[in-house]
Amino acid sequence: MNTKPLVAALAIAGAGIGGYWYYSPYLSIQAMRDAAQAKDADAFNDRVDYPKVRENLKAQLSAKMVDSLGTTGNADNGFAALGAMLGMAMINPMVDAFVSPEMVMRSMQQGDFKPVPPLGQDNPTGETEPKKVEWTLERKGTNKVIARTQEPGQKEPNQNFGLVLERYGFADWKLTEIRLNAAK
Fold first, then answer.
1. Torsions phi, psi for 52 (to 5 deg)
2. How far is CA 173 from its chain centroid?
3. pTM
């Protein structure tokens, strides 16, 4: 019995499965980008873990608030402490309201995390077509990638904004974090 064809077929199948596994985050980010461009919320939402995104964004903003309180030198100032407490109390409802499917899709389209403009002002710069955003992926182990925007002609991707995707299952990826201002 000649087993060479069987071994070759298994090797090709194994290489195909391994290639799919390795390139699955690229395929996922492309599918998210296509769904965002087509404004297909259902397809986009299948690839986003909104509770994790909200929780991670709340943690980032809380840490920034604590850092800014410590760097102002007014830690002993009662008004600064009151302002920090009010700010911390506002973070949770603000993030819950701000992180919506429309907002995350807009971030994917534009490569930035900004508030949604009022109705009728989707394109305030007067551009007729939205800018094309190029995404680069940085692997952080086997189960996490960070997608960052990169402008044409730039050597380095934008470190002030990133989308973190985590592996769910064999080759399924979901957005779990939005990183702002070079958060680690």
1. -70, -40
2. 11
3. 0.74
User: pLDDT tens digits, the chain, 184 residues: what are they?
Assistant: 688 999 999 999 999 999 999 999 999 999 998 888 888 889 999 999 999 999 998 888 888 877 776 665 555 566 766 777 777 778 888 888 878 888 888 888 877 776 655 545 555 555 545 567 788 889 998 899 999 888 777 778 878 888 999 999 888 999 999 988 754 4
Look up residue 57 and give its amino acid: L
CB 161 within 8 A of CB 179: yes
Which of 161, 153, 181 is CA-nearest to residue 112? 161
Q: What angle do CA 71, 75, 76 make, to 5 degrees?
A: 150
Determine the 3-state secondary structure of 160 from DSSP: coil
Pairing verdict, β 172-180 and 135-139: unpaired
* 160 close to 182: Cβ distance less than 8 angstroms: yes
Measured CA angle at 51 (ends 49, 56), to 5 deg:
95
Determine phi and psi for 144, rounding to 5 degrees: -145, 135
DSSP percent split of the chain into helix, strand, coil, nearest 5:
50, 15, 35
